[in-house]
């Protein structure tokens, strides 16, 4: 199990892990498969099959790396936003086009939004905080916590809607969640992704507990790509 770097604990090592965008990029590259690849849900038997087989089999898997690729090499114009509400907060907001990015970011160390402008290849590194979520999806990947719900059009995109709830896990999966999230810990929310796996909307809650079951912290994550 890879070490989980989250924004919801208060120890000094964790704070240092997210002290800059450069390390966030390293975490993302380490935990995500390079490129914008996806697999259909029928290749992942751990996903619960409560919808029709056709709908479930057509759904791709969630690919955060695809979001990073779209920021670095935008195929079209869109508005991008990311928010991590936790003891180590982080906010990103940007208008992205194939020619330029006009954006800003703020965090615990820099609460005043820091603006930046430039070509995507020059300034995309300012928009890497979505890498904070890589360990979340690594925990639930290939498990019954992830369920394909429906097809929806949202933020200008045709999407597959996934719900995520670790309470749905099997006994074996619950043991995994307990080892990573602590007794009573959880991940729950909703993700809307395009046919190539890119999340155009994320709304997720995470709760981490210590080994004795006491609460370590909570985090709320939001991400959105809105077609311009």
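-> sequence recovered:
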């Amino acid at each position: 199990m890879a070490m989980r770097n989250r924004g919801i604990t208060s120890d000094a090592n964790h704070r240092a892990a997210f002290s800059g965008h450069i390390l966030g990029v390293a975490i993302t590259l380490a935990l995500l498969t390079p490129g914008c690849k996806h697999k259909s849900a029928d290749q992942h038997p751990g996903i619960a099959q409560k919808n029709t087989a056709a709908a479930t089999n057509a759904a791709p898997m969630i690919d955060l790396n695809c979001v990073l690729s779209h920021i670095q090499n935008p195929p079209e114009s869109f508005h991008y936003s990311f928010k991590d509400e936790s003891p180590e907060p982080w906010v990103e907001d940007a208008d992205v086009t194939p020619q330029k990015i006009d954006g800003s970011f703020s965090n615990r160390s820099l609460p005043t939004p820091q603006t930046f402008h430039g070509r995507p290849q020059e300034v995309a590194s300012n928009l890497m905080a979505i890498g904070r979520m890589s360990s979340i999806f690594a925990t639930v990947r290939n498990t019954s916590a992830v369920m394909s719900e429906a097809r929806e059009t949202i933020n200008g995109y045709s999407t597959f809607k996934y719900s995520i709830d670790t309470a749905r896990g099997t006994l074996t999966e619950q043991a995994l969640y307990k080892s990573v999230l602590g007794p009573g810990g959880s991940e729950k929310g909703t993700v809307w992704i395009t046919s190539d796996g890119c999340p155009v909307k994320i709304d997720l809650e995470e709760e981490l507990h210590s080994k004795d079951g006491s609460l370590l912290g909570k985090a709320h994550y939001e991400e959105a790509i809105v077609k311009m």
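The radius of gyration is 17 Å.
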